Amino acid sequence: MAAEARHFKYVVLGGGVAAGYAAREFAKQGVNPGELAIISKEPVAPYERPALSKGYLFPQNAARLPGFHTCVGSGGERLLPEWYSEKGIELILSTEIVKVDLASKTLTSAAGATFTYEILLIATGSSVIKLTDFGVQGAESNNILYLRDIADAEKLVAAMQAKKDGKAVIVGGGYIGLELSAALKINNFDVTMVYPEPWCMPRLFTSGIAHFYEGYYANKGIKIVKGTVAVGFDADANGDVTAVKLKDGRVLEADIVIVGVGGRPLTALFKGQVADEKGGLKTDAFFETSVPGVYAIGDVATFPLKLYNEQRRVEHVDHARKSAEQAVRAIKAKESGESVPEYDYLPYFYSRSFDVAWQFYGDNVGDDVLFGDNDPASAKPKFGSYWVKDGKVVGVFLEGGSAEENQAIARVARAQPAVADVEALKQEGLEFAAKV
Ligand SMILES: Cc1cc2nc3c(=O)[nH]c(=O)nc-3n(C[C@H](O)[C@H](O)[C@H](O)COP(=O)(O)OP(=O)(O)OC[C@H]3O[C@@H](n4cnc5c(N)ncnc54)[C@H](O)[C@@H]3O)c2cc1C
């Protein structure tokens, strides 16, 4: 006979960044023991996922759990597993939900356990796109790796130990590719990056911005192969990858291959049960979906981005944190007949590798205006870009900014000041931001 369903007032489905910040907000707003459960496929309590491609891979003093559980990434309290038990918040770990029935408010796990709820927060995040998904020849070979969760990071650490001082090929020129290339280089690998675009991070970087990072990486000894893609892999008798075959005919030797070619929001469980848009689950400004009592937060939500008056999905950690807090505040306010202001998000994204670190706020649309010194050989590089649309600054990128300067560029992206003279803006550079 099937065991009886376990019932919770609130269930967070997924145990990543958004789940951790939702738990903290529930505790802040007041939740009774036994009311809230987090159900996660992962075996550990929520943690700050960005650490996996950064501190986790350091050759010395590497970050390890419990060091980076949420909410340390935003300077908040570190929620250890004990914190959850003290609050009476149930962490149901190593539990994959394979079936969701929003009509009967029931979730079913791979092991056949069932859970019912009154309010559901969907926080399933994204999964990585794999080369095996496209049937790339040899893509199933050993040591062709991806990075999304702690198990992936552990595999990468083990491969780096097994193939010490070897050759690494990084497939993909996005921020994951850039961060992982740096990590492998710091671990003394011979690193080659491969990507099809004319420059790295083309979704955000302009050619002027990319000029700096490509030169900086080259100076660190990282080889960059652009304008082609991996079409196959060779392996030895053990099944370990030995080479990457490129579309342009070149062959790169490899002991480790890391693929960072993007993610997909995990929404398949809800298909046909809830409205979707732009690849995510459509929500209102409080992250409630088309099904009352069902919320979507973090990477899976397509929400109204008030500042630009359009529905967007954002796959960044800052939004995962803030959307979780907004949803929980809205849920609790509704219960007491109150209301909260609409979500009014300013897009924010950052990355760091080696000794460089950048931040970006706003929207990268319109004309870009590069300022500062983007010479990759500079001792202390500091440069950036404004994006100007309809005579207003709508986005700002800054490499090497101080805390104050980063706050200033955030203010600019929020205020959208008018610019009459683009050439003057270029000359003024950061001074323009300081005045806003
Ligand atoms: C390596 C890496 C580095 C990153 N670095 C940065 C960075 O520098 N800056 C930045 O802004 N963003 C960064 N990001 C993106 C950021 O981490 C994500 O946007 C953020 O984690 C999204 O939070 P989330 O809670 O929506 O999803 P996630 O944190 O991915 O959490 C989803 C959780 O749901 C679980 N889950 C999914 N399906 C099920 C199921 N069916 N049953 C049970 N559990 C399930 C997953 O196992 C996971 O625990 C990085 C991401 C990665 C992978």
Automatic annotation (TrEMBL):
Family annotation (InterPro entries): FAD-oxidoreductase/Apoptosis, FAD/NAD-bd_sf, FAD/NAD-binding_dom, FAD/NAD-linked_Rdtase_dimer_sf, MDHAR3-like_C
- The chain positions of domain Monodehydroascorbate reductase 3-like C-terminal read 346-433
Under the GO molecular function aspect, what terms does this record hold?
monodehydroascorbate reductase (NADH) activity
What's in the keyword line of the UniProt record? FAD, Flavoprotein, NAD, NADP, Oxidoreductase, Redox-active center
Q: Does the keyword Oxidoreductase apply?
A: yes
Q: Name one GO cellular component term.
A: cytoplasm
FAD/NAD(P)-binding domain location is 8-324
| Cofactor(s) named in the record | FAD
Top EC class, one word: oxidoreductase
Stated EC number for the protein is 1.6.5.4
Catalytic reactions on record: 2 monodehydro-L-ascorbate radical + NADH + H(+) = 2 L-ascorbate + NAD(+)
Q: Which family does it belong to?
A: Belongs to the FAD-dependent oxidoreductase family.
* Stated name of the protein: monodehydroascorbate reductase (NADH)
